[in-house]
Structure formats: C-alpha cells, structure tokens
Amino acid sequence: MHCPFCRHADSRVIDSRTSDDGLSIRRRRQCPECGRRFSTTETASLTVIKRSGVVEPFSREKVMAGVRKACQGRPVTDADLALLAQQVEESVRATGVAQLEANDIGLAVLPHLRELDEVAYLRFASVYQAFDSLADFDSAIAELRDHPRAGRLPGDPAEAAPSISKE
C-alpha cells in the first residue's frame, strides 16, 4: 500500500477491524518512511461473468430486480427482496470464489426464494433450471409438496388445496 503523503511503496498495518456489515476491513497503517498514519478500507471483490462473457461487479440491486419479476403480484415487500439479496450475497461470498457465472447466482437465489414465496420460486426456477415441459413443473411442485417450507406445519390452511363442492 503506497503512502498517500510521501508515496513510499510500503506501509505497516497497525490495527485491523471488521466493519459492522462484515463485508470490509478497516486497517490503520503507518508509513515507515515519513511516519504518518492513514486508514484504508478493504473489500473482497465479487465479479459476475455474464452469458455474453462480459465481467461486471456483483450487484444486490440486480438480484432484487430479477427476483422482483418473479414476485410480481405476490405478497413480497421490497424489504423482503433486500433481505433475500443480502442472503444471496452472503452465501456466494461464503463459497470463497471471487468470480461466478450469472447462472450460479440465479441458482443461489433459489433456496432463499423458496423460503420467501413458493409461487415466485417456481417462476424463477423455471428460468434458471431451464424447465422444458410440464413434467418439469410437476416434479418441482411434487418436491415442494414433499418438503414444505420451514415454519409451515402439515395441515396448515395455507397449504391445503381448495375444496370444490358439487351441489
């Protein structure tokens, strides 16, 4: 790290602290040449390789925009989407990989979206898991029925199928 005062090519780390959000590190440094102190903030970069081959920085806003389309007409708030985007970023950063393909991020969204809204999950999964037929939807729905969301109990009215009476 170059000293911002004398441009000496090296500096010594005096103190390191993790930021409140846990995504960056604040370091207090001292220049061995001029003796002055300065602070730096370091973050691990996370980049996305798009299908076109273009590389761009990871964006929570893009995750939210993509999921927002799947959640259209569903009871999902912007706060829910922001939390989901944060969870997705944390899970992809936890892999330790600095560069991910866009499809990998879409797949990382699925478990978090499933907990949020099952209909939006099916919409999103149909794109990122490349559903080709109704059989793909049937198997995804069967999987949802076999393994319901956390927090729901069997027999929960939200899970019950509507009854049709023939009178």
Automatic annotation (TrEMBL):
GO molecular function term, any single one: DNA binding
ZnF start-end (unnamed): 3-34
Gene Ontology terms describing biological process: negative regulation of DNA-templated transcription
Cofactor note: Binds 1 zinc ion.
Lineage: superkingdom: Bacteria
Names of the cofactor(s): Zn(2+)
Keywords, in A-Z order: ATP-binding, DNA-binding, Metal-binding, Nucleotide-binding, Repressor, Transcription, Transcription regulation, Zinc, Zinc-finger
InterPro entries: ATP-cone_dom, NrdR-like_N, RNR_NrdR-like
Cell membrane in keyword set: no
UniProt region (Disordered), positions on chain: 148-167
Residue span, ATP-cone domain: 46-136
Keyword Metal-binding assigned: yes
Record-stated family: Belongs to the NrdR family.
Its job: Negatively regulates transcription of bacterial ribonucleotide reductase nrd genes and operons by binding to NrdR-boxes.
Protein name: Transcriptional repressor NrdR
Gene name per UniProt: nrdR
